[in-house]
Amino acid sequence: MHVLRGTPHTPLPRSALTIGNFDGLHCGHSAMLARLKAEAKARHLVSVVMTFEPHPRELFTPDSAPARLTSLREKIELLREAGIDYLIVQHFNRSFASIDALTFRDHIVARQLNAQLVLVGDDFQFGAKRSGDFNLLAASSDFETYSLPTLKQDGERVSSTAVRLALQSGQMAHAAKLLDRPYSIAGRVVGGDRLGREFGFPTANIQLKHNKPPLFGIFIVEVLGLDRTYQGVASLGFRPTIHGGDIKPKLEVHLFDFNRDIYRQHLRVNFLAKLRDEEKYPDFDTLIAQIQKDCDQARAWFAAR
């Protein structure tokens, strides 16, 4: 997959294009990408995804912007796994946001991206102040335009918002169904304060790309990126018992039956089930006893699976 930062200076090969944020790459996105690839293959076109960084709401309303389900790196990897030919990562700033809908359609979509076919969701809007919609896109004589109806599961609309709500409420199995995979966070192991080792539960501290994760609490997890998949428990939050709590959230993972130095390795943490919310304990002994209970519960969960 070719990854381009911004629209190309020379037109792409004749393309089948879809445009969106694709946060989380859920089942609805997967259906869109499968249709895009099928249309591209039938017409001898390259498949192209255009996405935005940062999320537009992070630019306009940063305080109320939704929590990211995937970092840009994770999104790129998921789109690569999906078999897309070209990914356009468009830097979303106020200059780009000011482009009017007709210019976006006729200059960027039709010329720079050389779209012969455009496939979008049924609620797609584009251009300055979201003034363009499917009808304006379809009015172009330069390319064919199709919309894909929203995918539903058991009557529920599959969306990034639905995934976030499932994660926030601890419904990990439901989130996994919407995503067609366990929800995961990937990142590099960074240095920590080594308190976990002192407590008898050494942890890998995973660097978070954003300070607003979509879930908090104590979780049963599996960890990929080492010699095999490891089981464990993870804490994602502010550690209220440790020195009064952290300013930024931390992801700490204790791997069962593992005691090696994995500093700076890149790991993926799959969140399988939620054990509980974070709590503030009166002392470290009470915290250590609770961590042991969490580990016992997680081991029992894996044994019963």
From TrEMBL:
Catalytic activity: FMN + ATP + H(+) = FAD + diphosphate; riboflavin + ATP = FMN + ADP + H(+)
GO molecular function (one): ATP binding
Domain of life: Bacteria
All copies of domain Riboflavin kinase, residue ranges: 178-303
Chain ranges passing through the membrane: none
Biological pathway: Cofactor biosynthesis; FMN biosynthesis; FMN from riboflavin (ATP route): step 1/1; Cofactor biosynthesis; FAD biosynthesis; FAD from FMN: step 1/1
EC number per UniProt: 2.7.1.26, 2.7.7.2
BP GO terms, sorted: FAD biosynthetic process; FMN biosynthetic process; riboflavin biosynthetic process
Pfam families: FAD_syn, Flavokinase
Keyword line: ATP-binding, FAD, Flavoprotein, FMN, Kinase, Multifunctional enzyme, Nucleotide-binding, Nucleotidyltransferase, Transferase
Enzyme kind, highest EC tier: transferase
Function: Catalyzes the phosphorylation of riboflavin to FMN followed by the adenylation of FMN to FAD.
PANTHER family, per the entry: RIBOFLAVIN KINASE (PTHR22749:SF6), RIBOFLAVIN KINASE/FMN ADENYLYLTRANSFERASE (PTHR22749)
Similarity comment: family membership: Belongs to the ribF family.
Descriptive protein name: Riboflavin biosynthesis protein
Species this protein is from: Deefgea piscis
The organism's taxonomic lineage, starting at the top: Bacteria, Pseudomonadati, Pseudomonadota, Betaproteobacteria, Neisseriales
